[in-house]
């Protein structure tokens, strides 16, 4: 049966918050620090782009398979624990010996096993709270995720200042252990696995729909295309900033901690604001705000080269990527409600999104080699304008309204007088 509010007041939702807090650091291994770390050891932007592209392609292939696995599995906790162990091991290998084998091999393994964590976490969340509370809970998850990132970045900044790379190693082991404890604290009996796959109600067919439902839902396809274009523009900018200023300042871990920390603080604000925006203006308003932020971000990054300008640039990253991180699973759940294919559908969207992010890394590396970082910022920021246009033309399909939404600004504009 659907979980009731009274059953959600205990340890499982507290554990879910703790899980998101520590998972922020445990799911991505070296994450944003990888580029700065390797750039100071002579790796070129083009080579780093190839590393990111290889990982992206492998993750893209694995994601829909893992999404289907999450839909069918009743062991969603294990689908978070095992990847965390493998990702942490791969990151420690890269730190200990940053060779071609450890970097390409470790990042490939991280991309493949890490692809299951997102769908598993979303399935676990939906199974705990149900569809009506899913929107607010996704925002809470993102709040704790970004809060965990900020604390982790501050801790890594301090640890590397006093203990160097050994401080990073200790932090990674501690956060992985805390993540596993949090997962094990979630009561598996509180997870409704039918609800977790999008079967809180059905559309008149017994059991889950066939996989053909994924291509028959135009909104899901358009959502994926919009995100593919957006992430083609957005994905490399943070990496390039980390490379650029790590080389300039010679402090890869501390520099990346500052640049990433600013974006994460902005994302915390967005996580608080998103439920209010959705209730007041509708889900479409959140997409509009997020998609509009990236062209401005690219223009600022491409125009100003002083380190002080990373603050508005990274705040805009928090607005764009932060809001889309909340809006995307909510839109997918609405589009696929009643089909029983939520996790695989969300995974399919993430796969198409990954195409854009993966291809962008090689393009960004090439642009940087021929015209410097500024050219790459301008081009990738400008590309994202197309994502805004696609969404505006199909917003009713991409971000369908629900009865608890109070409005849709585009509908209001398009309504006859």
From TrEMBL:
Keyword Transmembrane attached: yes
InterPro entries assigned to the protein according to its UniProt record, in alphabetical order: MFS, MFS_dom, MFS_trans_sf
Protein keywords: Membrane, Plasmid, Transmembrane, Transmembrane helix
Transmembrane intervals: 48-66, 78-96, 108-131, 143-160, 166-186, 219-237, 257-278, 285-304, 310-332, 344-363, 375-394
Domain of life: Bacteria
Domain Major facilitator superfamily (MFS) profile: 212-417
Protein name in UniProt: MFS transporter
The organism of origin for this protein: Shinella sedimenti
